[in-house]
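Write out a sequence, fold above all:
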Amino acid sequence: MFELEAPAELLLMSTQAKASIDTQPQETRIEVLLVRAVLSGDREGFGQLYDLFAPMVHGILLARVPRSEVDDLVQDIFLHAFKKLDTLRDFAAFGPWIAMIARNRAMDFHRRSRETVEVTEDLRSTDSSGARAGEILELIRGLPEAYRETLVLRLVEGMTGPEIAERTGLTPASVRVNLHRGMKQLRQKLGNTEAL
């Protein structure tokens, strides 16, 4: 889905980023090229970084904060990353860096006291599929952190195991284990709720 061949990479890159590709080795990862382009003034490159990494950030947040807060936090995280991009030492680590920002923002969200709204009959959704999805998301949120993050990235964001590993900085073996164990625990929880 997000894996790009070299010719497609060139089509996606802005003019400034394309100029920097000519001087880089073929094996240079696209995020390295995009970070370099952004730091040299190419704002289009940051839009491409957003397109590549927003699903991962969205999934990380979805595993940790209420759905209603996720979209605003994604925007906030990318704005913060844009402002602090010059502090990133290893451009190839953009994915793990922005993933850590997302995890920290989720923790900050829970540290701040939020006004709560009582759900009344007027506010309840009549959409049963949306309600069921919300129930399943709550079950996923009840799993250990490593499992819930990889499950949300896989099941909600549609990322493959290798994409999750590449973007989060986890090893492919860790992602496979987390997905396998997380799915097993989720199936057990789903089995328990079906019995009720």
